[in-house]
Design brief:
Two copies of one chain form a homodimer. The first copy, chain A, is an alpha+beta fold and 331 residues long. Chain A is built from ten helices and 13 strands.
Chain lengths: 331, 331
């Protein structure tokens, strides 16, 4: 009788031990997190005052927290990146949504794309003039249309049919961008080509997602489109490898299929994420004469944020960590 | 004295021998050639009469010969593919240029792209309505602009500034396509999604080039763009690996970065061209539910033309060979 009791006790103890161990193991491996960027370029400490730096850092932190909260509450990586990117689009600080750079004609023309690493579904939009949050339209193209890539007026027609929030052109245009455009036209300022916002995330289910949104290149003409709506160039996600969002001189990123190349170096050459990203940004992009950077997260929750410009607005918030924000090269 | 003469004679003989051998070696290795396609899809022998088959074959042969002549006369692979694609664009038989499929509104909206394997330069255009030969505009974007990708009205403005031949909408629209659109709208005909034309070539200098041109998808709405203007999806060329032009259900080709994937499988996994192409078209594309095919030529002049549809208009013309044209699966 006592022996039986002892056995039961031991059994119960064993079950508790195994369970707690499993929970511990699961918690340890159940990594998740989000990485964001707000553009790379000639961002120099000596040109920014404390107040400006704090404004940027506060907005990046807000976006990181919004995305992280989704992940923490068992939300999907797709929901997390959209929440984060919307906050950056709505801020006039970044070259996406409100505060986008202006075309040669003084208008805003926006591009965005999104990709789901689980099933390789993707959505991309280019040449938008009235869609308040281009990233939500990219997602709607992915989810509610048989297509991947819609451009111009047709894309806006689709937006209206899908009850996407539309806005006036004037909403996007800030006084700062108007002044910048004038200065660039009069060659009083140098062209800073690298504004864009983006996010990548890994959720508790191990699903990766990537999204990118931009106003493109200041003073652009001729319906110029960069790498942002080009799946495989500015945005790529694949659960087998990683999720990538790029920012930089888009033409080079298209020619190099930057985001896809990083994924292929991982999948076909077994490079770790950081090495693959370094190879593409610090070697291939650099050699071709292109500038910019990427953020990426892999299936195991490793992250990397390489760039070959003086600065890149960037940050990450990983499971059981704290939000980390950086702007300049050495920080 | 005699010895000296004998020596001189022997020396001359040796030089002749070495030279002839070098010439032979050079000629043997100085491979060049062109491969073209005119779209993949539900192309069935029982649905075509002899006359139709001959029409298609004659036009494909004309395009092949035009491209081959360029290569034979020491021209570049870039010139060769443009010559070949222009002939297919000008023919009402194929879904590119004249005879493009029609949008839901009954208009023609054209996309094209081009890539130079030597330096990874690229040009892409989408949503054109008045450019007679979209492939020439793609090339002009590559060569005469700092950009890679131009869309819509802006792209046409650039075309005009660069004296690209423009034409009326009515030029593109044929009675056959009008009837097809009506039948598809009334669900009397099935949607055949896979018209496009393309060419890839290797020239005597070992340079690869790829180009693709299309009217997109019949009955398309909302400014839908497929894989054709997406560098890395419908078109890719890299002298280290191969040149690829795709035709098929574009959305799947974008999601899989089809053309770039074939190149990466060669570069990073050392797969031969045929195996790399098979892996992407017969396995990955098939598994995702996509249909279509590609043509490709590698740096050594090997070619492949896999597709997972009943037929694909295709042909090749390689050094010291004859033009070969095929349409159906087994031929």
């Amino acid at each position: 009788m006592r022996l039986k009791l002892l056995r039961s006790l031991l059994k119960a103890l064993l079950i508790i031990l195994i369970n707690s161990n499993l929970t511990f193991y699961y918690a340890q491996n159940n990594k998740f997190g989000i990485v964001i960027h707000g553009g790379a370029g000639t961002i120099l400490k000596e040109r920014m005052n404390e107040e400006q730096i704090n404004l940027y850092k506060a907005k990046l932190k807000e976006a990181l927290k919004a995305g992280y909260t989704v992940l923490e509450n068992d939300g999907s990586s797709m929901d997390a990146i959209v929440e984060a990117i919307k906050i950056l689009e709505d801020s006039p600080l970044f070259n996406a949504g409100k505060g986008a750079v202006l075309t040669n004609l003084g208008t805003a023309e926006l591009d965005a794309s999104i990709m789901n690493g689980l099933n390789l579904e993707a959505g991309a939009v280019a040449g938008l003039k009235h869609v308040k949050n281009p990233i939500t339209l990219a997602r709607t193209v992915m989810e509610n249309s048989p297509h991947v890539f819609l451009i111009g007026e047709g894309a806006e027609e689709f937006a209206k049919e899908n009850n996407i929030e539309m806005t006036e052109q004037s909403y996007f245009i800030t006084d700062e961008r108007k002044e910048q455009l004038e200065k660039i036209k009069q060659r009083e300022a140098e062209q800073n080509k690298h504004g864009t916002v983006g996010a990548v995330a890994l959720d508790k289910n191990g699903n990766l997602a990537a999204g990118t949104s931009t106003g493109g290149m200041m003073n652009k003409k001729f319906g110029r489109v960069g790498d942002v709506p080009v799946i495989g160039a500015g945005t790529y996600a694949n659960n087998n490898t990683c999720a990538v969002s790029a920012t930089g001189h888009g033409e080079y990123f298209i020619r190099l299929s930057v985001a896809r190349d990083i994924s292929d170096l991982m999948e076909y050459k077994n490079l770790p994420l950081e090495e693959a990203a370094k190879e593409v940004i610090m070697y291939k992009l650099q050699n071709l004469g292109g500038t910019g950077g990427i953020i990426a997260i892999d299936r195991n929750g490793n992250i990397t944020m390489p760039f070959n410009t003086p600065g890149m607005y960037r940050g990450y918030y990983l499971r059981s960590g704290k939000p980390v924000i950086k702007i300049f090269m050495e920080e």
